[in-house]
């Protein structure tokens, strides 16, 4: 081989390598959690472990979070590209802070909020909490919607005795009779059922969505910078994430193992329980009617109506249609 031909091949090879490196860097996506890793976050770990993200040419870096507000702040700052957080929190932040973040896919098409009581307490419906002691976590978003849920049943906060406690104390408080009712999420049903079983008791669970609180909750939110500068990557990511979500539904055991592989401190059985609990918020009659991941116009408008009422915001301050971009969700 002549020096000229060798040099030509060398520079062609070098150019291809540089191009590949550039493409790889461009397709790195920083995924922002709205809380710590757990079974309810299984789709992103399945996307990594089962190669669904890799199939779309995407490498994922997962960042933990401490609530939807923090997740949205990081997305708005551009330090994360896409993540999971409450669409209601996004709507409020768009009004109060004008954040440059957009919803691109629904994950929970129902709110996770619920009342938990013991079966032998005589409390079986939301109206029954009148005159009862109710315990909640100080920072849960459920507290924002509590007055609305009570009002829907003709009650006010003054009709209950509300106390705030550490999230880890809620289950023991319920089992020991320190409180009549706790406010918690449907994503933790397995945990509370386990605590009840150890105490020889059974739970009565009253999800707020069954009482008329119809709204979207956890969603895929993306930095406007990300979807503007890398729309193709965003679309491929949504495709991979949706595939992962469907895989988790049909393969909960394998999905729990995938989470454990990446986050070994999470026991497989705990993850599996959370996956089971979460499914009711992702796959239900709303999904059957509208499709997986879809932001349906009327439900989106109702979500904003409830968020505005709960946070005393002007309903006319936001067009909820401008909070989402449906173009990244493949048909």
From TrEMBL:
One of its GO terms (biological process) is thiamine biosynthetic process. The keyword DNA-binding does not apply. InterPro entries: NMT1/THI5 (IPR027939), SsuA/THI5 (IPR015168). Residues 1-25 form the signal peptide. The keyword Signal applies. Gene3D superfamilies: Periplasmic binding protein-like II. Keywords: Signal. Residues 42-254 form the SsuA/THI5-like domain. This is ABC transporter substrate-binding protein. It comes from Rhizobium daejeonense.
